[in-house]
Design goal:
Shape: globular
Oligomer: single chain
Number of helices: 3
Radius of gyration: 16 Å
Mean pLDDT: 92
Largest sheet: 7 strands, mixed
CATH class: Alpha Beta
Helix content: 25-40%
CATH topology: Nuclear Transport Factor 2, Chain: A
CATH architecture: Roll
Number of domains: 1
């Protein structure tokens, strides 16, 4: 007997948009990241210049991040999301706070930063949830070798 698909709640649809955005980052697909955003979009991050706004905020942030990483010998970035700490949906607006772990390689050596947080504000548009803004909060510095 076939089972009925479980309808997606607004909460699960909003967190799915965040996961899709970061999955696009993990694949190195900045254009797909932009497609999952509202216009305008805003980003706040520890990477200079720290703030990106506008239609191409994600691709601009990605490009700046890859240039900064290349200067330090960093490659193979990957963000892993934990379970949301906050996931609030009010009408066509959502607020999501998710713990993260960022891993990458520096000159071939794996580095892992845990304890960071990805915070996003989303808007529900006709074609689904889109990120309107996000901020990355760094976790504690990893121990020195």
């Amino acid at each position: 007997m076939p089972t009925e698909p479980v309808p997606m709640t607004e909460e699960s649809a909003a967190i799915s948009a965040v996961r899709n955005y970061l999955d696009s980052f993990n694949r190195g697909d900045a254009i797909a990241m932009d497609a999952l955003c509202t216009v305008p979009m805003s980003i706040l991050d520890g990477l200079p210049p720290h703030v990106w706004n506008g239609r191409t905020a994600s691709t601009d942030w990605y490009k700046d991040g890859m240039v900064a990483g290349e200067q330090r010998g960093a490659t193979d970035y990957f963000v892993e999301l934990g379970e949301p700490r906050h996931l609030n949906v009010t009408g066509d607006n959502a607020y999501v706070v998710v713990p993260t772990t960022l891993s990458f390689k520096v000159h071939g050596q794996k580095v892992t930063h845990s304890g960071a947080t990805f915070t996003a504000a989303l808007r529900k548009l006709d074609d689904g949830w889109r990120l309107a803004a996000w901020a990355w909060t760094k976790g504690p510095a990893p121990p020195s070798a």
